[in-house]
Fold this sequence. Notes:
The chain is mainly beta.
Amino acid sequence: QVQLVESGGGLVQAGGSLRLSCAASGRTVGNYGMGWFRQAPGKEREFVAAITWSTYYADSVKGRFTISRDNAKNTMYLQMNSLKPEDTAVYYCAAGRVFSIVQATGANGYNYWGQGTQVTVSS
């Protein structure tokens, strides 16, 4: 089993930055694909970014967000710059045996999920 814990969320003004972390425990996730998803109130969960052997981004965050991982620390990160009010959501990290872009950008391919961290961007 893999346990994932997100941190780093908070309240920030538009144009600001936040860095989310996702710490994994229970098993090394170096061979897993990992991703970030988000869910805003009244909306469905949506893909944000993923990292396998490549990195993938939703069009809405491309150029502003950067996903990375430190396998030695069993941790994944999401650096979020130039934040917008529409980025407000609960952000979830996920891990799973995902490799292709189709697998990595869809929620169904992930077996393990964190509890989420709130990101609020004020205008």
